[in-house]
Amino acid sequence: MTHPTERAIDRTRRCASMDEVRRHIDALDDTLVPLLVERGGYMTQAATLKPLASQVRDEARIEDIVRRVRARAAAEGGEPDVIEAIYRAMMEAFIAFEHREFDRLTAEGRKPQLQQETAP
Ligand SMILES: O=C(O)C(=O)C[C@]1(C(=O)O)C=C[C@@H](O)C=C1
To answer: Does this UniProt record's set of keywords contain Lyase (predicted)?
Structure first.
């Protein structure tokens, strides 16, 4: 279990000005965006590995992730409802991206499973 002094909320610095608040937010965004891009790379791999477009959206997996990140948010001293809303919006954007990747890979003939299924 997370030690109380290791919680993310306790790393938030007290700021004396809005400039300082925004500097901290910009610095965190510089950490977050590369991680989101890296996460997006796995959508391309998922699109390669899933045989059917109907498998791109996986409701059971979405609910597993929501349950997991809500618990982590609480352990870090955050708001589970806020983190759930962010994750649901993020996953919708990633699902749309994964569909685009699925279509692109299909058009490029890079989905061997699908080709086998549709072969005469
Ligand atoms: O786990 C998957 O199947 C994924 O494609 C990844 C992901 C995600 O963003 O985590 C995206 C789409 C699915 O609906 C579920 C989860």
So the answer is: yes
Residue 4 lies inside a defined structural domain of this protein = no
| Rounded Cα–Cα distance for residues 108 and 91 (Å) | 25
Overall number of domains in the chain? 1
Task: Name the 3-class secondary structure at 45.
Answer: helix
Tens digit of each residue's pLDDT, the chain (120 residues)? 556 569 999 999 999 999 999 999 999 999 999 999 999 999 999 999 999 999 999 999 999 999 999 999 999 999 999 999 999 999 999 999 999 999 999 999 988 655 555 555
Question: Closest ligand 1 atom, CA of 58?
Answer: 14
- Asked whether residue 3 is domain-assigned, the answer is no
**Does a structural domain hold residue 19?**
yes
Determine whether the shortest distance from the Cβ of 62 to ligand 1 is under 6 A.
Answer: yes
Predicted interface score ipTM higher than 0.95: yes
For the purposes of burial, counting CB atoms within 10 Å of the CB of 74, is it exposed (0-12), middle (13-18) or buried (19 or more)? Answer: middle
Q: Give the residue, by CA position, lying nearest to ligand 1 atom 11.
A: 95
Instruction: Calculate how far, in angstroms, residue 21's C-alpha sits from the geometric centre of ligand 1.
Output: 33
